[in-house]
Specification:
This protein has 25 helices and 14 strands. The chain folds into two domains: about 450 residues, Glycosidases (TIM Barrel, Alpha-Beta Barrel); about 45 residues, no CATH class.
Length: about 625
Amino acid sequence: MKVSAINNISFGRRLTPQETQEFEQVQKEAKQLVGQTGKSIFIVHDACLPQSATKNTGVSNLAAKESQDFFKFMKPLLGFNIVEVLPQGQVANSKGSGLYCAYSGTALSLGNHQINPELLTTEEFGKLLTPEEFQKIVKANTKPDKETIANYDNVMAYDGEQNKMLKIAHDRFLALDETSPLKQKYNQYIKENAYWLDIPRSFEKDQEYFRFRQFLADEHLRIGKEALNKEGIKLCGDCLIGFSADEIAAYPKAFKEGYYIGDRTWDLRALDYDALQDPTSDAAKLLKTKVQLFAKRYDMIRFDVGWAYLNPRMTNEAGNHTYQQYLGDKVLKFIEDAVREVKGDDFDLRNLIYEFEGGDIFKQNSPDLMDEVVKRTKIFGTTHMHEKDGDLWGSNNAFLRRGWDPDYFVVGVGNHDPQPLRQIAHNIADTSMPDLSAHKYDAIPPLSRILNIAEETLHNPIEFAKAKWAEPMMARHNEMFYMDVLGREERFDMQNLNCVNDPARNLSAHRNYAYKIPADYKAAYHAAVEEGYGFNIMDSLAKIFKVKNLDETHPELFTKIVNFRDILLEKSAEIIEEITTPQEIKTISKKSKTPWIIAGAVALTGVGTALGIRHSKTSKDSNLDKNA
């Protein structure tokens, strides 16, 4: 989104500092009553965090002040206490397609994008770069869509401008006195991390330069993590299931010969799980190294494709033979023991969360969870919510009805994988499904029952989206993805574009995993809430209060919730005054690179209705729900 290009327009009335304090207190009291008292996870791709025009290198990171300001602004509005980032390893341009997929990166080392080059202009980092050299990186980001799409080439690529400046910084670093604080810190880092830093890497021609970049990346990630911790926010790292080609080459015996995890197209080598019982095996050494690096870098860990540590499906080289290997909890215990060696015996293992969704986690011929899964934290999305023969699935309600312990599962509208909520609300076909099915109408009956909302009301896309936001707020632990929070319609992981061998399907591959949070994220968030697709936590709490009759037992608190809900929906007088004629709308739309935001804002003022403007002006209008 680019809202900042619109002159003299503001979206919504933002909370004053005093209102923000009361907003947080009301939210806290309400969450206690509805039971959302545990983890609230805000998922972001840190590469896509906001950057202003003067600092837009193409890719952001947690150490940037703009990123820290973004989290400070969003925390009271969303109520999260955990930030989860996608895998942060070095990623390459996949076969020249333009796709930089976070899940195909390095598992041990961090990527160039974890380095904040602006910090290298400070005393703390020896002024290894000048402000002018930092600006060279910014000026090299000349892509026409640089404000909305991450420019990985400029930052990640070895021939990118950021890498050129880092080489200059490295030369200056080598010239520093050995007694300088930065050199001493570097030497200690190298000593402590030699066991993984020094594995052979064919893609790194200069190993000393590689070590220097890793030192900076780890230091800057630490700075970003500490900034979050000061705000009362934990950092959760996403531990990808795979390894890079260099990591595989360094530990060739760690993998089951000729076999891959999941679908063969994932191209992810399967570990030799049987060898894990031998602590001296390559498999044990490599998995332990990966897990412990994540334990050192993060407060919590999400395990990507978590079912592969429990009941992995493996496919042979040709892709024509698949089998499952039941592992029980031996690998899960291996992971837990490795984490405790770093974090200590008192580390709460509930802070290890597993992507069991999509895997076989139930007892044979039974709806009951496998014993190994019951007391481990599971993550589930509500994309596939449905009702069959009176049984609900894909909701907090359904999991509780099955007897699941609420301390051991997290529920959310979605994450980086599935269709965005906005598309589902408009009943758009899911291109990742073999039958191109849509998910909206399967979800309406259970949502109607759970929230006591008439089914016909949920046919409306906005009311459907609001209901979908409300349902996970009834869980003890919930999660939310930044694209959904901002009401975005684009699919973050455009599954069909991951086939990099087919140019016809890669026309938009550079946008995959690359949608940036706009520099004016405040306006973008309020616009999304006004449209009805963004996350308005007070609207969700109001719905749950009604379901639980808390509006009657706690009427004063309910009144405050509704008041704050409506404040976030208030229209700016500027919008009503400025947008009054079709010509003005046309003019503003030309200034905005995302005219659907304007259309939605106008429609909600009442002006749009008179002019026949739709709530959402998208390229997929022909596919929108005809019943809306």
